[in-house]
Amino acid sequence: MEWNIVADSGCDLRGIKLGDKKIKITKIPFSIFVENIEYMDNPRLNVGDMLHRIEKQDIHTHTACPSPAAWKEAFDQGDHIFAITLSSKVSGSYNSAQVAAAMVQEENPEKKIHILDSGSAGPGPSLLAIRAAELMEEGVSFADAVMDLEDYKQKIHTMYGLSSFNNLIKNGRVSKVAGFVAGKLGLCGIGEASPQGEILVQGKVRGSGKMLAAFLERMEELDFQGGKVLISHCENQTLAKKLKEMILKQWPQAEILIMPAAGVCSYYVERKGLIVGFD
């Protein structure tokens, strides 16, 4: 019996090893369009080059989620499948995965597929993927793994720290009023994934130091006890490391991983942005 974790590229897994050889990991890329250039969000993507083209001038850009056909191709592999998608409130990827699952199960009713709407981006879906791999290695049943993952999803929190909300605003992911706080006079916008999977802008702070302090304050409010933390950054490893140091100073037992954001997350958080996920 082969297990397969399938995730769209809104799940940042760069540099993270999951499970053993019996667990197949399949990534399905988003497409990022910068005028007439299509960037596929796969390991070969040069994120820096993509950002440079976007920042060079005020040009039309947008993203496209994986098609049902792309999901179906992945679902055809493996017997027990967990699919993890970017929040359905900001992307059609979840709907594409549902369409694909229906097609596959019509052809093969015995195949088990469960689709998880992560309700977030980057580290949030990654924490679900890590948990899924742990459950598979523990040998739990598919039904028990489904219940565990749905419960675990409710315990994951995702926060955003951005100096620009331009691409989120242009693509209708946040309102212009909410997004305007960032990028002015050295202000950083602080955002959070709502329980419904929307991106909520919580406020603004002046400077990256105060942004990191705001992260820690919010983690305390959410009763973080020193569990798993994933920090995804868009070309800002220095600030990500600083946040890691601050978290470990307050919660020495925390398990923290830092990873570069993949293409679609880099597109939306923009250069120097951070996404933090924790359980």
Overview of the molecule:
The protein has 279 residues and is an alpha/beta fold. The protein is 38% helix and 27% strand. It has helices spanning 47-56, 68-75, 93-107, 123-138, 142-153, 166-170, 176-179, 208-221, 237-250, 263-269; strands at residues 3-8, 23-28, 31-34, 37-40, 61-64, 80-85, 112-117, 157-162, 187-193, 199-206, 228-233, 255-260, 274-278. The strands form 3 sheets. It has a 6-stranded mixed beta sheet with strand order 10-9-8-13-11-12, sandwiched between helices. The chain has a 4-stranded parallel beta sheet with strand order 2-1-6-7, sandwiched between helices. A 3-stranded antiparallel beta sheet has the order 4-3-5, covered by helices on one side. The longest helix is centred in the middle third of the chain and has 16 residues, at 123-138.
Question: How would you concisely characterize the structure shown here?
Answer:
The chain has 279 residues and is an alpha/beta fold.
User: Which whole number gives the mean pLDDT?
Assistant: 88
| SS elements, strand count | 13
Q: Determine Rg (CA atoms, Å).
A: 18 Å
Helix content: 25-40%
Strand order of the largest sheet: 10-9-8-13-11-12
Contiguous helical run count = 10
Structural class comes to: alpha/beta
**Low-pLDDT segments:** none
Order of helices and strands: EEEEHEHEHEHHEHHEEHEHEHE
Most strands sheet: 6 strands, mixed
Distance from first to last alpha carbon: 30 Å
The gross shape turns out to be: globular
Strand percentage: 25-35%
